[in-house]
Every structure is written in structure tokens, then in C-alpha cells.
Write a structure and sequence with these properties.
7-stranded mixed beta sheet; two-stranded antiparallel ribbon; 5 helices; 11 strands; AB_hydrolase_fold; PLipase/COase/thioEstase; LYPA1-2/EST-like
Amino acid sequence: MTAPGELIIEPKSGKPADACVFILHGLGADGHDFEPLVPALGLPGSANVRFIMPHAPRLPVTINGGMVMPAWYDILAMDLGRRVDENQLKVSAERVQGLIQEQIDQGIDSQRIIVAGFSQGGAVAYHAALSFPQPLGGLLAMSSYFATVDSISLAEANKQIPIEVQHGSFDPIVPESLGKSGADRLSSLGYAVNYRQYPMAHSLCPQQVSDIGRWLLQRLSA
């Protein structure tokens, strides 16, 4: 496992950031995968938001014949529950939490920090945000699943975190039923979860990008 870095996009206003959005990419990608999303969100020029897109380490992935590729954790089997290496997932989540803490130490209010993730990155985002000991501004899971739902130690500080879950109804990689079950489980635990379905596969669509932009503005304007 190498020590990866992250892509950092500073506010286009040129002013110091007063909010931060983390976006965690999916299997086989890197932080640059979501770089085009930032201008597409339509955030106003006055939004002093720093975007941080960490790169996953390179790991052998069992379901891909042991091929080494960017991965937050190993996927052991593509069964209904998606068997994963939870220890590796938690190490990745701890790394993200360390990056979050760095932003707090630099003066960003924890409640103006949002954690988002796509697919594998979403599973890490779930764990990192919901076990973080300080209140965060929001959690966004895109085309993902809650892999550690049965083992996570949920932090009391984030019992009120706004959660947005988005999934494609034609997703052949992560079935929508898997994404919906994680959202339903959190709802049953008393979390405020908003679920959105889109007529797409394992990707993002224009309507979703618009919804993400509005959601971020709502979270960061509160």
C-alpha cells in the first residue's frame, strides 16, 4: 500500500475557504475522477468552498483476479451483501477522518464539512462521517452501500447529520436494492435520510448534479 495524496481545489473566489467538501472516488479511479463535477455544481462565486478529493491506495482486489488498482478496500465477493475487507475499509475511513481533522485544525467549522463518496468511496464516506466524534455538515452517498452497517460504532455527535443517498435504478454494479437498504437501515435508527432515485446506471446524471449543487448550498447556507 502506497501513501497516496489528494487533489485539492481551492475556492474560485480566491478567498480563504470557510467550508470543505470531501469527495471519495470509486474503485479503479482516483481523485481526479470528480474534478469536472466541481464547476458543474453551479455554486455561486461567493461560495468559499474547498474541495478535497483523496486518492485511494493501490491494493490487490479479489473480485478482479487480484489485480492491483486504486481501491479503498478489497472486495472479496460480489454477493448480495457485498463481502468486503472491513479492516481495510476502516483504515481508509480513519485516513479520511484525519484529513477532516486537519481542516478543523486549520479553522474550518466541523459543521461546514461535508463528506461525499461514490460507490466504494461512498462506503468509506458512510463509515468516516457516522463515526466521526464532531458534528459534520452532511453525508452524501452516490451509487453506494453501507458496508459496515453491522459493525460501525456510531458517534453521538453525528446522530443529526443530514444524509443524502442517491442511486441509479439501472445500476448493474451496485444494485439499487443494496443502496436503498442502507438508507432504510439508517432511517430505522432515527437518522434523517433523503433518498433519490435516478433513471441511470452506475454513474452520475445531469439532474443528479443539479440536485447535489442545491443540496450543498442548503447545507452550507444553514
